[in-house]
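Lecture notes, unit on protein representations.

Consider one protein chain, 216 amino acids long.
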Amino acid sequence: MKSLYILSFLITISLFSFSQTKSDPAAKAVLDAVSAKFKTYKSVKANFVYKVENASGKVLSTKTGNVIMKGTKYKLLFSGQEVFCDGNTVWSYDKGANEVTISNLDASSGMITPQKLFTNFYDKDFYYILNGEKKVGSKTIQEIELTPVDKSKPFHKVYLQIDKAAKNIYSTKVLENAGNRYSYTVSSLSTNAAVADNVFVFDKKKYPGVEEIDLR
């Protein structure tokens, strides 16, 4: 489940050239624009590529996944895992074990949901600076470098790449203290499609013999 934990922190949803004690207003303006744009969407569907590298940049694994979001609801498919959330309950299904863990979504717990990664998750937990712009194909990408306020976190740096014209997150890379690097790149994104609410609810009938672990 480690990969799901990392994904839930990122989708995402990611300063050490000097000792930083405050954030860059230019970076905040970019992040605020991304957050405001995301909040206008009725729904979001995104496909992404997940890549793990070691400290020297060698690719250890590459996987794909997708996420659907609507309001506080989401459905995530990734690496043999399916996570459903109807805004109140979270079902985490492990295909290999054919078991689903059921828990309550506690908005006050600080739990990171896919939606939070596209909104203002950065305000209290990170310092951030705008590194500049570059071209990736036909896109103009703005890179923002973030560092956690809490130095006990298992990662020390996060890079967010923003599609300047679309005001959407293009990719996120997390640098772990242990040396590994985890990145998520959005390969396609569509918005405002009609999505039925039952998409975000785990339907036990579709998973014969599934074992339920209810933690509510």
